[in-house]
């Protein structure tokens, strides 16, 4: 019997890079800002087998979508919900500029130190946050391992089932997910007065897509990623922040990764006007 959920309107801010999945072939974690309440709040949506969706069912970052959600009972992080598959539809898109910051600027700003301390003490503590780093020192690159035989088998099994099914579960059958060339991390300090520095791995799908494009074009992956994720995103005319998130495993709740980068022009990152919602 299908469990009824609740309707939600979400501004999508994060599409994490897909990972191999036994149930779905590969899945993505989506996060964003719920805007159907009295004040904006964080929400995490998982699982979404995004690469397997028909074009009409896909959505982009900073789309506003309406969908049915229900709390994930197995996940004690209060922001975590499961979306009813194929329940969403796009109702708007917020372009870069003041209109986008009218929503994002209403979120409380935190620090990585605060997020880590709270989540280490309480598994139900805030698991998503917007952090503006005090300074970013550099990017660090580590070769990404190849998929294991088990991970490959998960993805190949889903492709085989879909390709031989009389009535496919999805309308599209993607190729086996390609792993990125590198794991990439920011070395930075947050705005906590006692911060001794952080190493935040970037899990943004945009990073994986960029690496794959650079490899396909025969270009230097490290140079291309540095140009985009450091030089452009942290240019002097930008007010740049990180969308931070932690892990579902209770033992790793205190570990936060960079799920995405918010890099509006400084002139657009002004205090939002009241009574937006």
Tell me what the structure shows.
The chain is built from 5 helices and 14 strands. The chain is an alpha+beta fold and 277 residues long. The chain has 2 domains: 95 residues, OB fold (Dihydrolipoamide Acetyltransferase, E2P) (Beta Barrel); 122 residues, no CATH class. The strands form 3 sheets. It has a 5-stranded mixed beta barrel. A 4-stranded mixed sheet has the order 8-9-13-14. The protein has a 3-stranded antiparallel sheet with strand order 10-11-12, with helices on one face. The longest helix is centred in the middle third of the chain and has 16 residues. The chain is globular. It starts with 5 loop residues before the first strand and ends in a 15-residue tail after the last strand. The relative contact order is 0.18.
> Which structural category fits the helices and strands?
alpha+beta
List the secondary-structure elements in sequence, H or E.
EEEEEEEHEHEEHEEHHEE
* Spatial extent as radius of gyration: 19 Å
In which order are the strands of the major sheet placed? Answer: 1-3-4-6-5
Number of helices: 5
Number of strands: 14
Termini separation comes to 35 Å
Mean pLDDT, all residues: 92
Low-confidence stretches: none
List the helices and strands and how they pair.
Layout: E1 6-15, E2 19-21, E3 25-34, E4 41-48, E5 63-71, E6 80-83, E7 89-93, H1 98-104, E8 109-110, H2 112-121, E9 128-131, E10 135-143, H3 149-164, E11 182-189, E12 198-201, H4 205-216, H5 221-232, E13 241-246, E14 256-262
Parallel strand pairs: 4-6, 8-9
Antiparallel strand pairs: 1-3, 1-5, 2-3, 3-4, 5-6, 5-7, 9-13, 10-11, 11-12, 13-14
Helix pairs in contact: 4-5
């Amino acid at each position: 019997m299908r469990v009824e959920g609740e309707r939600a309107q979400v501004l999508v801010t994060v599409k994490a890079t897909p990972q191999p999945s036994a149930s779905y072939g590969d899945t993505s974690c989506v996060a964003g800002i719920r805007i159907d309440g009295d004040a904006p709040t964080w929400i995490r949506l998982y699982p979404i087998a995004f690469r397997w969706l028909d074009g009409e069912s896909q959505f982009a970052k900073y789309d506003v979508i309406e969908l049915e959600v229900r709390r994930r009972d197995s996940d004690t992080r209060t922001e975590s919900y499961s979306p009813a598959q194929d329940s969403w539809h796009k109702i708007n898109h917020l372009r870069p500029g003041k209109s986008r910051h009218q929503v994002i600027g209403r979120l409380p700003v935190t620090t990585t130190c605060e997020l880590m301390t709270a989540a280490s003490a309480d598994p139900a503590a805030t698991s998503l946050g917007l952090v503006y780093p005090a300074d970013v020192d550099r990017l660090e690159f580590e070769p990404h391992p190849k998929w294991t035989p088990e991970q490959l088998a998960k993805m190949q099994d889903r492709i085989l089932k879909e390709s031989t099914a009389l009535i496919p579960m999805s309308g599209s059958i993607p190729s086996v997910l390609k792993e990125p060339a590198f794991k990439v991390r920011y070395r930075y300090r947050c705005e906590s007065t006692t911060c001794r520095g952080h190493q935040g791995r970037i899990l943004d799908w945009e990073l994986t897509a960029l690496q794959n494009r650079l490899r396909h074009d025969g270009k230097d992956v490290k140079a291309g990623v540095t140009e985009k994720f450091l030089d452009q995103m942290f240019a002097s005319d930008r007010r740049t922040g990180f969308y931070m998130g932690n892990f579902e495993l209770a033992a790793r709740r205190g570990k936060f990764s960079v799920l995405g980068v918010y890099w509006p022009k400084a002139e657009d990152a002004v205090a939002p006007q009241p009574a937006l919602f």
